[in-house]
Design goal:
Organism: Crocodylus porosus
Structural class: alpha+beta
InterPro entries: Ddi1/2_HDD, OST48_MD, OST48_N, Peptidase_aspartic_DDI1-type, Peptidase_aspartic_dom_sf, Ubiquitin-like_domsf
Helix content: 10-25%
Oligomer: single chain
Number of helices: 15
Strand order of the largest sheet: 2-1-5-6-15-14-12
Family: Belongs to the DDI1 family.
GO molecular function: aspartic-type endopeptidase activity
Keywords: Aspartyl protease, Hydrolase, Protease
């Protein structure tokens, strides 16, 4: 295969498949093609030696099919072969006629072109030639109906074009199809010898006379509905519309258009390529290892166009450069500077991996794409004698202070995998995970019997101290990595280091397994499923990274909503929870407020929510003082509730309360008064812990199971005690029956309640 990049040295090959009714001697363009440097090969459509591929290689660069009525190609050529030729980057020129066969019709469908039925023709009763025999199928197409693309149809104004053949329509869902030459608004496609009894296949400007296609791989295809369009007779014929007063032209524009189309479809025109690409800081000549924020950079690219077999600089004023991470951060036009295009711009104040991207896609030209990836990181301020102003820092800029650790080289074989520590994505704020740059002495000594560790997050001793000093990170570690948390709390540094190293080795094994899966048999369903899961996990990690960068506030902790109130004159800090169904109070709080005497134990039960609690009973009515308002309220009394009081939806809805987070107040709708929510420092102790006092090392599901088991066990014990009491009372049988009957008739039935909080 000869590429157009070496057109001046090698002649590209071109195969012409023709029919007997259209002999190659009549193709005046043959001499033009030879003069343009093509090696021509002629074959009849039914030649048994026809072949496009041999030993897996294409035999030709381009293909001309001038056999519209063929029903079966000879040799090993068929529609699938020609389609594969196009998919491989080959270019094809096809001419059809009213006598069109199924192969060309199928080839058109593959390329987004639909031919009309056999024996139909394009008819125009207003734009036909004076030599038309009477069916008005010898169409005169004005040059105004051509596609406005000089690269495809030529630059000079053309004389009217003669056309006689079948009409086409383009697939509206295929954006790659080009309407090169359309009929006039009075044209249509139908059987010329039959009356019109149904809507024509193509009407008006939708009628395509010549259509084209440039595939995404830059392969090009041109379909002409007329084989006569390329004939000597049409090239040399005079043309004049059969309209009184119309101008007569001594020659049609067919030849000029045919030459322009052939130059485009065979990639002699409209071919672009990328030359040298460079980028660097302004004032420098070489690209740095990494750029940093607000750097002034210069990007340049050389773009060339193929012209008469030689590469020459391309002249365009609409070429854009994009500076892209996920979305473009900068989009600007490139200015031509001599033989290249360049632009200077300031990098945005965002870190990451970026690309210089040029994506140029214009009508008639091959798709031009260039992408250069760069690393975009912070700039270390290494000179202690320079001021911040000399580095270009100003008010509003961010300076990150990072502790620089110097370590000795670690002996080989000690703790493999430690440089990439991962304990379930727990990051310690304020610490750097980058590797030290220069070896030196330890900043602090280790015991003689302990191995030598680097200082930083790779040092198990330092990592242990940091986690123990941060209760929040410690609670997260207990939840997400229990084995490592257990080793940490054991106080044994050797055990902690061992578990840490084992987890790193396990992570390394998983990484090796992942690499093995990518190289596995692509038809292995298990391997593909694991690859899919790995891709899904990568998407999750990328989503989390973006969230941490764009919305870091979503990872912060929210202070719970508490207010000050009084119950029976005793101060209480109440939790406002609009998601709870009912208002609850702990037994300890009820005893402090002296309202246990009002508890109706018939409403006992078990409350389920985040955990379970035993309901002792219910206080049907009590007054809660909020600011200066006294509000009637009812409570369910829980036995071991850590928070004193919870105002649920029943109380909030009854008094039309609303939570105003902008003002940080609870508004009592029935009275109009407001009470502020408590700051974090005034919250009760249970609201500052992860799961309540004494349960820092338990997960929510474990707490729920434990509480449910305890509540059920207490219920069983109380039932057994009640039975024992009744069975061991010494009373007369008759009196016992009377008392039981009296209790049954006079007392309300005992009710059990299960509240979903």
């Amino acid at each position: 295969m000869k590429s157009f990049a070496k057109l001046q040295d090698f002649a590209p090959s071109l195969a012409i498949i023709w029919c007997f009714s259209f002999k190659p001697e009549r193709l005046e363009g043959e001499t033009t093609l030879t003069d343009r440097g093509f090696d021509l090969t002629f074959r009849t459509a039914d030649d048994p030696s026809l072949s496009l591929i041999k030993y897996g290689e294409f035999l030709y660069d381009n293909l001309i099919v001038f056999s519209p009525s063929i029903e079966d190609f000879g040799g090993n050529i068929n529609v699938e072969t020609i389609t594969a030729f196009i998919d491989g980057g080959g270019s094809v020129l096809v001419a059809a006629s009213s006598d069109i066969g199924d192969p060309l019709r199928e080839l058109g469908s593959e390329c987004g072109i639909e031919f009309d039925e056999e024996r139909t023709a394009v008819i125009d009763h207003h734009n036909y030639d004076v030599s038309d025999p009477g069916q008005h199928t010898l169409i005169v197409a004005d040059s105004e109906n051509l596609l406005k693309a000089p690269t495809i149809v030529g630059k000079s104004p053309l004389n009217p074009i003669l056309f006689r053949g079948v009409g086409m329509v383009a697939d509206p869902d295929n954006p790659l199809v080009l309407d090169i030459l359309t009929g006039s608004s009075t044209s249509y496609s139908f059987f010329p010898d039959k009356p019109i009894n149904q809507y024509p296949h193509a009407v008006g400007k939708n009628t395509l006379l010549i259509a084209g296609l440039q595939a995404r791989n830059n392969a090009r295809v041109v379909f002409s509905g007329s084989l006569d369009f390329f004939s000597d007779a049409f090239f040399n014929s005079a043309v004049q519309k059969a309209v009184p007063g119309s101008k007569r032209y001594s020659q049609t524009g067919n030849y000029e258009l045919a030459v322009a189309l052939s130059r485009w479809v065979f990639k002699e025109e409209g071919v672009l390529r990328v030359g040298e690409v460079s980028h660097h800081r302004v004032g420098e000549i070489a690209p740095p290892n990494a750029y940093t924020v607000t750097d002034l950079v210069e990007y340049s690219i050389v773009i060339e166009k193929l012209s008469d077999g030689k590469w020459v600089p391309f002249d365009g004023d609409d070429i854009q450069l994009e500076f892209v991470r996920i979305d473009p951060f900068v989009r600007t036009f490139l200015k031509r500077n001599g033989g290249k295009y360049s632009v200077q711009f300031k990098l945005p104040d965002v870190y990451g991996v970026f690309q210089f991207k040029v994506d140029y896609n214009r009508l008639g030209y091959t798709h031009l794409y260039s992408s250069t990836q760069i690393v975009y990181a912070e700039r270390p301020l290494t000179d202690n004698h320079r001021s911040l102003a000399s580095y270009g820092l100003k008010d509003g800029d961010v300076v990150i202070l990072r502790q620089k650790e110097n370590v000795e080289p670690r002996p080989p074989g000690h703790f493999p995998g430690l440089p990439r520590i991962d304990f379930s994505s727990i990051a310690v704020p304020g610490m750097s995970t980058q590797q030290p740059q220069q070896p030196a002495q330890h900043l602090r000594s280790s015991p003689p019997e302990a191995p030598s560790f680097p200082q930083g997050l790779d040092n198990p001793a330092l990592l242990r101290d940091m986690l123990l000093a941060n209760p929040h990170e410690l609670s997260l570690l207990k939840e997400r990595n229990p084995p490592l948390a257990e080793a940490l709390l054991s106080g044994d540094l050797e055990k902690f280091t061992k578990v840490l190293v084992e987890q790193q080795q396990d992570r390394a094994r998983r990484e090796q397994e992942r690499i093995r899966l990518f190289a596995a048999d692509p038809f292995d369903l298990e391997a593909q499923a694991k690859i899919e899961e790995d891709i899904r996990q990568q998407n999750i990690e990328e989503n989390m990274t973006i969230a941490m960068e764009e919305a870091p506030e979503s990872f912060g902790q929210v202070v719970m909503l508490y207010i000050n109130c009084k119950v029976n004159g005793h101060p209480v800090k109440a939790f406002v929870d609009s998601g709870a169904q009912m208002t609850i109070m702990s037994q300890a709080c009820a005893e402090r407020c002296n309202i246990m005497r009002l508890v109706d134990r018939r409403w006992a039960g078990i409350a389920k929510g985040v955990g379970t609690q035993k309901i002792i009973g219910r206080v049907h009515l009590a007054q809660v003082q909020i600011e200066g308002d006294f509000l009637p309220c009812s409570f369910s009394i829980l036995e071991e509730q850590p928070m004193d009081m919870l105002l649920g939806l029943d109380m909030l809805k009854r008094h039309q309360c609303s939570i105003d987070l902008k003002k940080n107040v609870l508004v009592i709708g029935t009275t109009g008064s407001q009470t502020p929510f408590l700051p974090e420092g005034e919250l009760p102790e249970c609201a500052r812990l992860a799961y309540g006092a004494g349960r820092e090392d338990m997960r929510p599901d474990e707490i729920a199971d434990q509480e449910l088991a305890e509540a059920l066990q207490k219920s069983v014990e109380e039932a057994a005690a009640s039975r024992w009491y009744q069975e061991n009372q010494v009373i007369e049988p008759g009196r016992r029956e009377r008392e039981f009957s009296s209790a049954t008739s006079d007392s309300a039935p005992r009710r059990t309640t299960c509240a979903l909080l």
